[in-house]
Design a protein that fits this description.
3 helices, mainly alpha
Length: 116
């Protein structure tokens, strides 16, 4: 019985020694590239103190007017088209197409053939 207690004591001492490794001696973790890198030190994000006022939404007033108009009338469609045009303009300003993604070679017609 004492022998089993002594073996258990040695085992626990060995485990405590493994868990008490200094930070410099810790090995890096294999990182698969997804998510945050566990090997990089944690850096707190700084927030800007000067917040620029948010740009007013130009469609906010149009949507209020749209709610007062008779649905699907000519005036309703005019305001609706203005809202859609503004949404398209905002999307176009945010949309970025990578230059490598756009093929600059001239378009050629699809060629089909038989496989032998």
């Amino acid at each position: 019985m004492i022998r089993h207690g002594f073996i258990l004591l040695i085992f626990c001492t060995a485990l405590i020694g493994c868990a008490d490794a200094p930070a410099q001696e810790r090995r890096s973790i294999a990182w698969d590239g997804l998510g945050k890198d566990p090997n990089r030190p944690h850096a707190a994000k700084r927030r800007a103190t000067n917040h620029a006022p948010a740009a007013p939404d130009p469609n906010q007033e149009r949507e209020r007017v749209l709610g007062t108009l008779r649905p699907y009338s000519e005036a309703w469609w005019a305001v609706h088209d203005e809202i859609q045009a503004e949404n398209d303009r905002q999307l176009g300003s945010k949309l970025v197409i990578c230059p490598r993604c756009v093929d600059s070679s001239p378009l050629r017609e699809d060629v089909t053939g038989s496989v032998r």
